[in-house]
Specification:
Blueprint lengths: L21 E3 L2 E3 L16 E7 L5 E7 L9 H18 L4 E6 L4 H10 L4 E5 L5 E5 L6 E3 L1 H13 L8 E3 L16 E7 L3 H12 L3 E5 L3 E7 L6 H11 L5 E2 L1
Antiparallel strand pairs: 1-2, 3-4, 3-10, 4-12, 5-7, 5-8, 6-7, 6-9, 10-13, 11-12
């Protein structure tokens, strides 16, 4: 693969990853130029209040997300999901090979991986290069398990918050859960406050009966209201939410 490998340059610049350059089976992968990414600043989503149709005690408060990497909320969330997923996937492989390439080299490497019946994941970095992980020897540097995780972490710290910066073969794809079906829940209202502010108030009212959840396009928490609460208490619960954000009923 020749030019897919680059000479390592270890940087002291604090804007770059502080991890030392990794020497792998006599070859060196250059992570010194992989600058740590700053999360985007654009926020998305709105907070909504849902109630279970069958049991009024079951409530769901969530921020509906846009699912875009360029979002202040969704970008870091997607990064965490992908990092955890790839850590598991790569950890199950006997050997992983790493390529540091330019975008123009990708099609050639992808063809070789497919011909070898291998799997792959490629991550676009903010420096313009791509980190490609595969389980077949089509060039690249072979990694130990510890080196694989270290290089993956460095890659994710340098991920480009661009449109779909991570792509995988079908065998290594990430399946995100869908949000609760509409048939289970009815909408109580739209909240103008952030979901974090709402959660603080809810915890004050019901204690630890709060359970966080993460879905493909929503983030928030379930709350189970006390068994002793009647309709009047539930109505008061709704009114207390008005203190942190106006509800449009």
């Amino acid at each position: 693969m020749g030019n897919t490998e680059q000479t390592a340059v270890c940087h002291d610049n604090p804007k770059h990853n502080t991890e030392p350059c990794k020497e792998l089976s006599g070859q060196v992968v250059d992570i010194g130029k992989w600058m740590v990414s700053s999360p985007p600043r654009k926020r998305c989503g709105m907070s909504i209040h849902l109630r279970n149709r069958a049991d009024k005690r079951n409530n769901l408060l969530m921020r509906v997300l846009c699912g875009r990497w360029a979002c202040e909320i969704c970008g870091p969330y997607l990064k965490t999901k992908w990092q955890g997923h790839l850590s598991i996937v790569l950890g199950k492989q006997e050997t992983i090979f790493i390529h540091q390439i330019t975008p123009t080299q990708w099609e050639k490497i992808k063809t070789r991986i497919r011909r070898a019946k291998g799997e792959y994941a490629h991550i676009k970095l903010n420096s313009g290069v791509w980190a490609v992980f595969t389980n077949v020897p089509v060039g690249g540097s072979p990694l130990s398990q510890s080196a694989t995780q270290s290089i993956l972490d460095a890659s994710m710290n340098s991920v480009s918050y661009d449109r779909k910066p991570i792509a995988t073969s079908r065998g290594w794809s990430l399946s995100l859960n869908s949000k609760p079906t509409k048939s289970e829940w009815e909408r109580v209202g739209t909240l103008t406050a952030d979901i974090e502010e709402i959660e603080k108030v809810v915890v004050e009212l019901v204690g630890d009966q709060v359970r966080s959840f993460y879905h493909a396009n929503a983030i928030g928490f379930y709350v189970l209201l006390p068994q002793s609460w009647d309709d009047a208490h539930i109505a008061e619960f709704d009114r207390r939410l008005l203190a942190v954000g106006k509800v449009e009923l």
